[in-house]
Design brief:
Elements lengths: L6 E5 L3 H12 L4 E5 L2 H10 L4 E5 L7 H11 L4 E6 L4 H9 L4 E4 L4 H20 L3
Parallel strand pairs: 1-2, 1-3, 3-4, 4-5
Helix pairs in contact: 2-3
């Protein structure tokens, strides 16, 4: 049984992050779109839902917490993973209390992020079995 590819949105204002992570995440057959601006990412999310959104916390104009809130308001089943170079307990707690699936501190290895995405995908797939 082949698994349905995940649609993953990656938002980070540092271009290198998307360039480095996109090929690593696509190795598993998932579809990855990268964005450097939160506004463009949210506009794209309005056009098509994503299974998983990975977003940096600190960006110009719209921060990761705002993206988290807007994504979850539009799609309760989307899993949001927060990336932070400023990992503090407060930021992590705020993100998790607002519904983030998990967070990961920079610097991290693509394999670490893939592990979190794999856990999120298992939760998404099990969600298809339960009707609410």
């Amino acid at each position: 049984m082949s698994k349905q590819p995940l649609k993953i949105m990656l938002i980070d204002d540092e271009n290198i992050v998307g360039k480095r992570l996109k090929p690593a995440l696509e190795k598993t057959g998932d579809i990855v779109e990268t964005f450097e601006e939160g506004e463009k990412a949210l506009a794209r999310f309005d056009e098509t839902p994503f299974d998983i959104v990975v977003t940096d916390i600190r960006m110009e104009n719209i921060d990761g917490i705002e993206i988290l809130e807007q994504v979850l308001a539009k799609s309760g089943r989307t899993k949001v993973i927060i990336i932070t170079g400023y990992a503090t307990v407060e930021i992590a707690r705020e993100a998790l209390s607002k519904g983030a699936f998990d967070f990961i501190a920079k610097p991290f290895k693509p394999a670490d992020l893939r592990g979190i995405i794999e856990r999120a995908s298992k939760e998404l797939r099990s969600g298809f079995l339960h009707t609410t």
